[in-house]
Amino acid sequence: MDDYDLITRNAAEVVTEDEVRALAEDPDGKRAYVGYEPSGVLHIGHMLTANKLIDLQEAGFEIVILLADVHAYLNDKGTFEEIRETADRMREQFVAYGLDEDDTEFVLGSDYQLDEEYVLDTHALELETTLSRAERAMSEIQRGSNPKVSQAVYPLMQALDIEYLDLDLAVGGLDQRKVHMLAREVLPTLDYEVRPAVHTPILADLTSGVGKMSSSDGVTISMEDTEADLREKVNKAFCPPTADPEPDAEGNERENPVLQIFKYHVFPRFESVVVERPEEYGGDLEYDDYDSLADDVDSGELHPADAKGALADYLDELVAPGREKIAEQRS
Ligand code: NAL
């Protein structure tokens, strides 16, 4: 795989392809970042962007993970002290998940976001941006239905962070795209450069296949899950015998979340996938890539129940090191 394909594999969106192609010509020593509002425990959404960071490390990028404590505070996620404590625990869980500790720089937002220069730049962007523009940028990230002033400031600071952390590439879930578009508009007003972004997909709700998988409502998978939890959640997941389900009775688009997890979590981290089956049901199956597994589900060769059993095994392997770290953190 060439560097451009590695940088963009499994991405939902690349902004812009030409800018990322230019980076891919010589990725060594380039800096890519992702930011997270600290929460106590990594969930499958964090793990998905982390898989992209692991791809980027392999391509030669240095990785910067912003533990966005001030942003979480502005987005009503708790007291500043609570958020600070969770940031430390999250860092350890990322390393347990497989990010190379020597090649990953962890930064707290509050390390530089309270400096005079940064604060004055934030105010300069507040002057450049209408409230409605800021609200629009925040719509997919905002907690609560009634936007607060803090939540309008949030995307402006996220835009500034791209400059202050001296980054070449921004990575985030597709829910960050409106903030990144705002950043492209406002950074040049302060004579700062625009940087490209790679957006990872948002997976479908595990039980219905409709809408987003979310940690705030519905079932998600996290690093706290025991093997039994994982097995139960995966067994209850929506998995029709096709990669491309029909819309539901109300006409809502549906995805197959079991296959999505194979595609975005399992195949990027394992050379091949073995589905164990008793001899009488045809014996074990081995897949080298996602498409061949999805084709077998489509054709009926691989039954959803067998696919689910294998998915729980591989998820358990991915989650286990973080689960042990969390147990240590709590003891
Ligand atoms: C991501 C977040 C907050 C600040 C950032 C600054 C620079 C780059 C990425 C950042 C968190 C993100 C979330 N908005 O929704 O978790």
UniProtKB/TrEMBL annotation:
Major localization class: cytoplasm
Gene Ontology terms: cellular component: cytoplasm
The enzyme's E.C. designation: 6.1.1.1
Motif 'HIGH' region per record, residues: 38-46
One GO MF term: ATP binding
Keyword Zinc in annotation: no
Keywords, comma-separated and alphabetical: Aminoacyl-tRNA synthetase, ATP-binding, Cytoplasm, Ligase, Nucleotide-binding, Protein biosynthesis
Biological processes per GO annotation: tyrosyl-tRNA aminoacylation
Cellular compartments annotated: Cytoplasm
Keyword Ribonucleoprotein: no
Stored Gene3D superfamilies: HUPs (3.40.50.620), Tyrosyl-Transfer RNA Synthetase (1.10.240.10)
Motif ('KMSKS' region): 212-216
Record-annotated membrane-spanning stretches: none
Function: Catalyzes the attachment of tyrosine to tRNA(Tyr) in a two-step reaction: tyrosine is first activated by ATP to form Tyr-AMP and then transferred to the acceptor end of tRNA(Tyr).
SUBUNIT field: Homodimer.
Family per similarity comment: Belongs to the class-I aminoacyl-tRNA synthetase family. TyrS type 3 subfamily.
Protein name: Tyrosine--tRNA ligase
Source organism of this protein record: Halopelagius inordinatus
The organism's taxonomic lineage, starting at the top: Archaea, Methanobacteriati, Methanobacteriota, Stenosarchaea group, Halobacteria
